[in-house]
Amino acid sequence: MKASKLRELSDDELSMRLKDTRRELFNLRFQHATGQLDNPMKLNATRREIARLLTLQAEREHERTAGGEA
């Protein structure tokens, strides 16, 4: 999912999406280890999505702390 679409999600939805994506990464790693993964590029795409989600969470946290100090 693109970052622009992720920005539209609420904080709770973002957290749930992160939790689901991490679970998906775990399952993909397991499939890769057992030789059942058809497309290994899914691992990279899933890692990147996790990075996007974590970046958005960090940005929002930074906005909250910076907004409180101003």
Description:
- The structure is a single chain.
- This protein is mostly helical and 70 residues long.
- The chain has one domain (11-69): Helix Hairpins, CATH 1.10.287.
- It is built from 3 helices and no strands.
- It has helices at residues 3-7, 11-33, 41-69.
- The longest helix is centred in the C-terminal third of the chain and has 29 residues, at 41-69.
- The chain starts with a helix and ends with a helix.
- The mean pLDDT is 92.
State the main characteristics.
single chain; 70 residues; mainly alpha; Helix Hairpins; 81% helix; elongated
E-strand count: 0
Termini gap: 33 Å
Spatial extent as radius of gyration: 15 Å
Report the β-strand fraction as a percent range.
under 5%
| Shape assignment | elongated
Assign the CATH class. Mainly Alpha
Quickly count the domains.
1
- What name does the CATH topology carry? Helix Hairpins
Low-confidence runs of at least 5 consecutive residues: none
Q: Please state the structural category.
A: mainly alpha
Helix content: over 70%
Order of helices and strands: HHH
